[in-house]
Amino acid sequence: MKIATFNINGIKARLPRLLEWLEETRPSVACLQEIKTQDEGFPAEEFEKIGYHAIWHGQKGFNGVAILADGTKPIEVARGLAGEPEDEHSRYIEADVFGVRVCCLYLPNGNPQPGPKFDYKLRWMDRLRTRMREVMAEEVPAIVLGDFNVVPEDKDIWSPKALADDALMQPESRDAYARMLGDGWTDALDRLNPQGGVWTFWDYQAGAWQRDHGFRIDHLLLSPELADRLVSAGVDKDHRGREKASDHAPVWIKLRPDA
């Protein structure tokens, strides 16, 4: 089974690229972030034409997440995170599909820091960890994946100095991410590429793509039940270089069948 995550950076603007990627790589499950559309504007029928069924949590103009499954409809478990009722951002959706609990997220960026946006990021990470612990306690095969907006270690960016003051690199952000892993989750891409040097994002500015000045912020975290089934993981880097591409590349894992 192949499970992927892709920050599409506007589903309407990137729809041809998204459909192209789905048909070329055919993941069993595809999680999307930054769909940037209200619920009624989500192009579900376009995915159904190629065999995918979807659930989504939209928001006008920014944020928004979705889960697509090949040949079946994901069974929604939750949308949004508990703990902050006034938070109306569409950043989290969770579903059961193909015997796996799939938790798709778009974590707050947090810039500028310090400030209220960074404080919100850290609170959101605490709320996410609470939900992840609940999922872990269910002892189901589970994956938490998406754009975490955290560069976990210096090996995960082309130049640590380049983003030294950015919210993605702050000790508080990294510590919050590390605490999630400490609860028993496995960072799939890091596990299979411990040396680092694997990027999932290249900014549109300053020729970052052409110079390969990227970093890793799109992660797939596996519960112990799934970590034992991990076969491979990778980044569809070539899709970042196509016309009118997202500034993220799709990231994926492959799992062996459940015994």
TrEMBL record:
It comes from Novosphingobium aquae. The gene is xth. GO terms for molecular function: double-stranded DNA 3'-5' DNA exonuclease activity. Residues 4-248 form the Endonuclease/exonuclease/phosphatase domain. Gene3D superfamilies: Endonuclease/exonuclease/phosphatase. InterPro entries: AP_endonuc_1, Endo/exonu/phosph_ase_sf, Endo/exonuclease/phosphatase, ExoIII-like. Transmembrane segments: none annotated. Belongs to the DNA repair enzymes AP/ExoA family. It comes from the Bacteria. This is Exodeoxyribonuclease III. Keywords: Hydrolase, Magnesium, Metal-binding. NCBIfam families: exoDNase_III, xth. Its EC number is 3.1.11.2. Its cofactor is Mg(2+).
